[in-house]
């Protein structure tokens, strides 16, 4: 009997000590201490390319094309669109639409119609012909005349490199609706955008003057139209 009482006493003593240890541990851990929360960096899916070939484009401000998952509508950040238009060299006095179409572009396919493209560096204009009839004139920006960024002059063909968007961290610029005419290096594409997909206002204001790294820049609606209507194999003539 005495032995059993001793055993019970030791068990109670052990339980008491354990309880005190747990109590002290809880009291010493303050939930009021600040918790450092680290912001989550957005992940860019570099594998979701819209190009028909797996290439790295050494293009005007860009390289590898990547398709945006939710296809947001990008607009420029200007509070005064009219001021932007005033700064740009518009010859037709129309308000330039710096808003990207909400529609998902569908790449042009070959048809019985014969298209051709003429780029005039001296006037910074792109002419579109359909069955030898001029149907559209678009203002553009070709390559800078200094720094070895000239747009190549000569006769080319629209190739099968294309994509909905790209971004090049090296230049801090990208663009949408791009179509190649010399590999994936020289392209027709929209006005430059930043990493958030917003049109870079300073670059947009240069429309109508040589401003690119060799590619041919167009306003969003024209770039979208070009992407959807000018198929692979179309002749491209670039000159003065």
TrEMBL record:
Biased composition (Basic and acidic residues): 79-89
UniProt region (Disordered), positions on chain: 63-93
Active-site residues, Swiss-Prot/TrEMBL: 189, 215
Keyword Transferase recorded: yes
Keyword Transferase set for record: yes
Domain annotation L,D-TPase catalytic: ranges: 115-239
Cross-referenced Pfam families: YkuD (PF03734)
Family annotation (PROSITE patterns): LD_TPASE
Keywords annotated in UniProt: Cell shape, Cell wall biogenesis/degradation, Peptidoglycan synthesis, Transferase
CDD domains tied to this protein: YkuD_like
Pathway given in the UniProt record: Cell wall biogenesis; peptidoglycan biosynthesis
PANTHER family the UniProt entry points to: L,D-TRANSPEPTIDASE (PTHR30582), L,D-TRANSPEPTIDASE YCIB-RELATED (PTHR30582:SF2)
Name assigned to this protein: L,D-TPase catalytic domain-containing protein
């Amino acid at each position: 009997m005495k032995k059993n009482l001793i055993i019970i006493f030791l068990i109670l003593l052990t339980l008491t000590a354990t309880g005190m240890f747990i109590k002290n541990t809880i009291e010493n851990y303050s939930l009021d201490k600040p918790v450092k929360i680290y912001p989550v960096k957005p992940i860019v899916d570099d594998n979701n390319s819209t190009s028909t070939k797996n290439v790295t484009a050494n293009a005007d401000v860009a390289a590898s094309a990547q398709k945006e998952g939710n296809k947001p509508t990008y607009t420029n950040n200007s509070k005064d669109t009219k001021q932007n238009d005033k700064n740009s060299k518009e010859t037709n006095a129309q308000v330039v639409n710096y808003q990207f179409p909400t529609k998902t572009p569908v790449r042009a396919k070959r048809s019985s119609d014969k298209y051709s493209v003429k780029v005039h560096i001296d006037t910074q204009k792109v002419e579109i012909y359909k069955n030898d009839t001029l149907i559209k004139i678009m203002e553009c920006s070709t390559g800078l005349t200094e720094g070895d960024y000239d747009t190549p002059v000569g006769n080319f063909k629209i190739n099968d490199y294309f994509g909905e968007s790209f971004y090049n961290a090296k230049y801090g610029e990208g663009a949408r609706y791009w179509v190649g005419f010399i590999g994936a290096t020289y392209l027709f594409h929209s006005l430059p955008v930043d990493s958030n997909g917003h049109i870079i206002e300073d670059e947009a204001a240069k429309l109508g003057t040589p401003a690119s790294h060799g590619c041919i820049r167009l306003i969003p609606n024209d770039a979208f139209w070009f992407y959807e209507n000018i198929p692979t194999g179309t002749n491209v003539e670039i000159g003065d």
